[in-house]
Amino acid sequence: MGYDCEFLTDCLGEGNVSFGESARESHAADWAADEAGTGVTPDAVVWPESTDDVSAVLEAANDRGVPVTPYAAGTSLEGNAVPEYAGISMDLTRMNDVLDVRPDDFQIDVQPGVMGTAIDDAVSGEGLFFPPLPSSGGISTIGGMIANDASGMQTVKYGEIADWVLELEAVLADGSVVTAGSKAVKTSSGYNLKELLVGSEGTLGVVTRATLELEGIPQQIRGGRAIFPTLDDAAEAVFDAVRSGVDVAKIELVDAISAEMANDYLGTDLPDAPMTFVEFHANHGVQEEIDFCRTIFESHDVERFELADEEAMDELWKARSELAFALQTWDPDLKPLHPGDVTVPISELPAIIRYAKELGAEHDKIVPCFGHAGDGNVHYTTLVDRDDPDDVAVGEQIYEAVVEKAIELGGTCTGEHGVGRGKRQYLELEHGADSVEAMRALKRALDPRDTLNPGKIFPETAKGERVQAEPTDD
Amino acid sequence: MGYDCEFLTDCLGEGNVSFGESARESHAADWAADEAGTGVTPDAVVWPESTDDVSAVLEAANDRGVPVTPYAAGTSLEGNAVPEYAGISMDLTRMNDVLDVRPDDFQIDVQPGVMGTAIDDAVSGEGLFFPPLPSSGGISTIGGMIANDASGMQTVKYGEIADWVLELEAVLADGSVVTAGSKAVKTSSGYNLKELLVGSEGTLGVVTRATLELEGIPQQIRGGRAIFPTLDDAAEAVFDAVRSGVDVAKIELVDAISAEMANDYLGTDLPDAPMTFVEFHANHGVQEEIDFCRTIFESHDVERFELADEEAMDELWKARSELAFALQTWDPDLKPLHPGDVTVPISELPAIIRYAKELGAEHDKIVPCFGHAGDGNVHYTTLVDRDDPDDVAVGEQIYEAVVEKAIELGGTCTGEHGVGRGKRQYLELEHGADSVEAMRALKRALDPRDTLNPGKIFPETAKGERVQAEPTDD
Predict the structure, then answer these.
(1) Which class is A220-408 in CATH?
(2) Where, residue-wise, is CATH 3.40.462.10 in chain A?
(3) What is the ipTM of this complex?
(4) What count of Cα atoms within 13 Å lies in the side-chain half-sphere of residue B418?
(5) Which residues contact A141 (CB under 8 A, 6 or more apart)?
(6) pLDDT tens for residues A14-54?
(7) CA B179, CA A434: separation in Å to the nearest integer?
(8) Is residue A465 very low, low, confident or very high in pLDDT (cuts 50, 70, 90)?
(9) Known EC number(s) (chains A, B) (predicted)?
(10) pLDDT at residue A463 greater than cutoff 70
């Protein structure tokens, strides 16, 4: 054991603490379980059940110099929630209550361990929904989504998680409890602590309660798929639709190889071609909007633009949502390296996709591309034999080149998965040294002992550099 | 002279520095020009023309312990941009270029001194507009709007300024230049420095360039006014419309006395009754949305719901936009005390308006109420004889009581005007001591010498408490 964590039993009682190997090991890797997603096994796992529990653990850990890494569903892809330095894994899945629903204000109060789709379940009877849920909404928690500022298929119309968080209660590293934001829909009172906490990946505070904004379920929802002769046509069509102001609620791009993988995994019969999945939300005029979109797609040589009934739409969205799983299982030998995403200004969407595909062709590798194309967001990976170092090296090279290209095009190294351990090396390239230094100053200000999720986000916080006491033994 | 500011001539050359009394005095008060809005006369005024100029001044001032207060159009209402400690007033109005328009990406790059409506002028030819402009968009700068996280009549549909800022370049207190945010429409890369800078009122950095997002001008724009028997009916109607999900682009409440003042000031003939001004934006089905709104208004006993042609709408919005001026000039003896705003959850809108009006009646005072009601936002003031201390005291009492009530109802002490000097005393009541301490830690982290706009936002930063060197003489 690295850090002495016996004090946790005093904080929480035995039922909410484990020093057992299986509990500890299950908190050492995230869903990617690759190099970025595999951390150090924590010395203990705690399951707080209240804000007071979170505060008690943090205060005691901070006093003792013991790292605390918040964890929930473990569905991150960049190692965001796995320990870099052992210490305590704080599992928030037992704080999973819906606390209050206020339909008149379009608001819901939840604890961090509530699953994404449970929010929709709690409010759909009121005719409301939570628009920014990621594709993984059924298997990931709102706390994790807030920590990574997640977004999803409907972000193109409705925005990202940050846009739907009104107020947060969070515990800072020293155990103090802050409230950030307001239940009023707008405020210019003081610094925007709320937006600073959203996307800070548990390095600045642990969210213990969130007030989320909701939206009325639109009266008209229709969707379908459009098949294009080439991936470039599909990308140009998405760009043109967005540029032309088509009011689309989802506009996803799926390349031919990803469609094939989805067919293999789910038994669907998507055509072997690049395509977009689209959905339109409106109270009036949804058909006019679809017609508008069709006109634009036709100018990009769309082969078929087929509207689907509700059941067929569900199947399409399931295929899209489960692409990540499909990639993992498609080939027994070739596995996706670094399943991640970049985002660029929408005018550069065709360019970044062309670039990724050309790199794949150049190196004779399969590089599946899909994603929330309407936001300029591209998910890509390279299929490699993980036992072949040369293969992995080529995959790494493609991965890095696409990230660097996205930044060069005015984009970001991570659209929705956060920085964690996987994207640390790009932070300075994207933001510049002075901006990263400003971020680091904020970290030092709110967590001077580097207690919360140490080692994440910042490039030079390599192992052994924590300012505080190191583990008592190894 | 307080601080020795001769060094400024070396930084910028003589043409961009003034030590003259009239320049200095014109930078000592904002538009409210009341107790909150009247600061200390600065020792010098500078007009930087580039990021390098801003950086040079800040680096030199920070080294010397001289305060720098950013200033632009001077249209704040809470003293946000007037010096608390003399030193340098940094006037950004000469940095007023539109740098780039990228219609394909719905983006524009501007310098901070660009006037709000100049943004619309620059992009309307592309069929685009900048939705979150405040009513004062024609007389205030984008830099000031960003500093206060302003919002406006269309915020109910489109959100506030922060929602439309993609990327900022800003100079920190030590002269370092940071880039915050991304030109990609979504990112989860690093801490959200951008949202921290927006609304920080020039206390954390000076914005020198902003990339703003734009929206397509809707194909259908229609509006009108609805007259109600009582103010309570009008407020309940607004609440019901918002709760019911009416897709309204503007929904403003104006009470009878405010309408009378507008008539006096502008020569309009608004009826002597409480009313709402509404506007609907859509590409399809605007008439159906108007009909939906009418049904709801009818259930609240609306007397007349009259659609207006374009010319008549322009007159209505002019009346609404210029209410602040109308209040100032309506009575030669009675002047508005603390023209400010609060915002509450929409379900509490009727309650906060009733409360303000009841206080006015109780004290026999005129308390005009109007505002962006669809956001739960209320502008209110008390008309007082400023030469009568008892009258002023009653006005203060009403002002404070409404702010405290708004906070009690889950709202905020300032919806869109920032904290400045006028709302400092409510920061802790609204956010709690630990949250305010966290904000203060952020201020110390980015501006350890308290150079940038010292004395603002935080309640206990009273005069004489700056940690750095005090003025050389007084």
Answers:
(1) alpha beta
(2) 220-408
(3) 0.96
(4) 30
(5) A72, A73, A92, A93, A96, A112, A113, A114, A115, A116
(6) 999 999 999 999 999 998 888 888 999 999 999 999 999 99
(7) 8
(8) low
(9) 1.1.2.4
(10) no
CATH number of B219-324: 3.30.70.2190
Instruction: Look up residue A314 and give its two tokens.
Output: 């569900």
**A77, A106, A191, A347: best to mutate for the B interface, most B CBs within 10 A:** A191
A375 shares contact with chain B (CB less than 8 Å): yes
Tell me the CATH number for domain B331-450: 3.30.70.2740
pLDDT digits over A405-420, tens only?
Answer: 999 999 999 999 999 9
C-beta atoms of B195 and A192 within 8 A: yes
CATH class of segment(s) A98-216: alpha beta
List the single residue in B189, B416, B439 with the smallest CB-CB distance to A188.
B416
The CA distance from B428 to B431, in Å, is 5
pLDDT in tens, B47-103: 999 999 999 999 999 999 999 999 999 999 999 999 999 999 999 999 999 999 999
* Residues of B (279-308) whose Cβ lies below 8 Å from A: 282-285, 288-289
Tell me if the domain spanning B7-93 has CATH number 3.30.565.10.
no
CB contact under 8 Å between B178 and A414, yes or no, is: no
Residue A154 at interface with chain B, using a CB cutoff of 8 Å? no
Q: Where in chain B is the domain with CATH 3.30.43.10?
A: 7-93
What's the token pair of residue B217? 């001008």
Q: Cα distance from A396 to chain B (closest Cα, Å)?
A: 20
A347 touches chain B (CB under 8 A): yes
Q: Which neighbouring-strand residues pair with B107?
A: B102, B213
Please give the pLDDT value at position A461.
56
Instruction: Pick B415's closest partner by Cβ from A178, A187, A204.
Output: A187
Pairs across A and B, CB distance < 8 A: 285
Distance from CA of B394 to the nearest CA of A (A): 25
Q: Where in chain B is the domain with CATH 3.30.465.10?
A: 98-216
Q: Which residues does chain B have within 8 Å of residue A410's beta carbon, measured at their own beta carbons? A: 182-184
- Give CATH 3.30.70.2190 domain extents, chain B: 219-324
Show Cβ contacts of residue A87 under 8 Å, excluding neighbours closer than 6 positions.
A2, A3, A5, A42, A43, A44, A61, A66, A67, A68, A69
Q: How many angstroms separate the CA atoms of A437 and A371, rounded?
A: 32
Structure tokens at A14: 């035995």
Binary contact (A347, B104; C-beta < 8 A): yes
From B430's Cα to the closest Cα of chain A, the distance in A is 9
A172: contact with B, CB 8 A cutoff = yes
**Predicted pLDDT of residue A386:** 92
Enumerate the CATH 3.30.70.2740 domain ranges in chain B, comma separated.
331-450
